[in-house]
Write a structure and sequence with these properties.
The protein has two domains: 118 residues, 3-Layer(aba) Sandwich (Rossmann fold); 95 residues, Orthogonal Bundle (Arc Repressor Mutant, subunit A), CATH 1.10.10. It has 222 residues and is α/β, with parallel strands linked by helices. 41% of the residues lie in helices and 21% in strands. It is built from eight helices and eleven strands. It is elongated. The strands form three sheets. Strands 2-1-3-4-5 form a five-stranded parallel β-sheet, sandwiched between helices. The chain has a four-stranded antiparallel β-sheet with strand order 6-7-8-9, covered by helices on one side.
Length: 222
């Protein structure tokens, strides 16, 4: 799946790009409206994520030009403006969804999948698996070797992120960005504490240990 991201804030763009690439999306990034509009016309994308406040050409104008060119790519608007009028304007000119900053990556990803399902381009998996571990995303249920694991909402979210990246080492910083809210204080030790609690439920009563610490790098589920 190919995503066009038009976002001039480098920190926000890096946050989105990293998360989408880890979720197996190809991301084409533009940092201004004119270049973004050019890219929208020269390649085909499965979805576009467009910020409102852009240099050279603002996001609303970019969306208007995209729709005027009869390009039907689903569009998610990003903006620090959260007024009703701003949201209505974005949707009226052709956007399909609107997400106010700051936001969590998990919410953005959920909105992307919702738009792709609506357009018939993708079916999001309902179950994530690793060996004898199964996560039912719709039923919000996790089992290992057929035994139910009683997870909190945050533990479920953390395990989902690790399962989506199984076999890959994820750092404390990326976990903070994708499991907790965007902009969460990176100096906190909440990741270590939450991983410890999750490991207690996930591995303690099983001979095969799935959640591992890679010292100096992060964590991996394998």
């Amino acid at each position: 799946m190919k995503v066009l991201l038009i976002e001039d804030n480098s920190e926000c763009a890096d946050f989105i790009i990293q998360g989408l690439q880890q979720s197996s999306f190809q991301v084409i990034h533009s940092s201004d409206g004119l270049d973004g509009l050019f890219k929208s016309r020269t390649e085909t994308y499965d979805i576009a994520i467009i910020d409102i406040m852009l240099p050279k050409l603002d996001g609303l104008a970019v969306i208007e030009e995209i729709r005027r060119a009869k390009i039907k790519t689903p569009i998610i608007v990003l903006s620090a403006r959260d007024s009703v009028e701003s949201k209505v304007k974005g949707l009226e000119i052709g956007a399909d969804d609107y997400l106010s900053k700051p936001f969590s990556f998990s919410e953005l990803l959920a909105r992307i999948y919702a738009l792709l399902r609506r357009s018939g381009d993708v079916t999001e998996p309902s179950v994530l698996c690793l060996e004898d571990l199964e996560m039912d995303l719709f039923g919000r249920r996790v089992t290992r070797a057929g035994k139910n694991l009683d997870l909190t909402a945050l533990e479920f979210k953390l395990l989902e992120y690790l399962l989506r990246n199984k076999g890959r080492v994820v750092t404390k910083t990326t976990i903070l960005e994708h499991v907790w809210e965007y902009g969460f204080d990176p100096k906190t030790n909440v990741v270590e504490a939450q991983v410890c609690r999750l490991r207690e439920k996930l591995d303690k009563n099983f001979e095969r240990k799935l959640l591992k610490t890679v010292r100096g790098f992060g964590y991996v589920l394998e």
